[in-house]
Amino acid sequence: MLSENLKNLRKIKGITQEELAIRLNVVRQTISKWEKGLSVPDADTLIKLADFFEVSVSELLGVTVEKEVDSNIIADQLSRINEQLAAKNRRSHRIWKTIGIIFVAFVVVNILLVLLGTVSFYSFKSDKTTTLTTESEIITNEEE
């Protein structure tokens, strides 16, 4: 349906494939493939096409849209969307909370390591009970 609609709308506007391609920033062969049904445009390009031809994307795709939609169906869809968003928010909150806890634990461990290193350094530096003897003292003690 898209291929036929695209070709008809282009002919109604009176433009060539080349002119349409230039307006959409694609090559002429791309327009040809769309019109032959060999490929389809991406979502952004569909929107550009619909805007250019002044039709809705649904009309461009050839989809018939029901004008009257049951309000219960809409309410159910909105309810599902809200549930999905709430679940996503809870998951996101849980992830950030976990990242925060890991970060705080990392900082605390680093602070403890720095404190332990500082205390060990000063206790080693202030230890004055170490005695050193030289070789000459040992030799004199043996001669006696």
UniProtKB/TrEMBL annotation:
The chain crosses the membrane at residues 98-122. Residues 6-60 form the HTH cro/C1-type domain. CDD domains: HTH_XRE. Signal peptide: none annotated. InterPro entries: Cro/C1-type_HTH, Lambda_DNA-bd_dom_sf. SUPFAM superfamilies: lambda repressor-like DNA-binding domains. One of its GO terms (molecular function) is DNA binding. The keyword DNA-binding applies. Pfam families: HTH_3. Keywords: DNA-binding, Membrane, Transmembrane, Transmembrane helix. This is Putative transcriptional regulator.
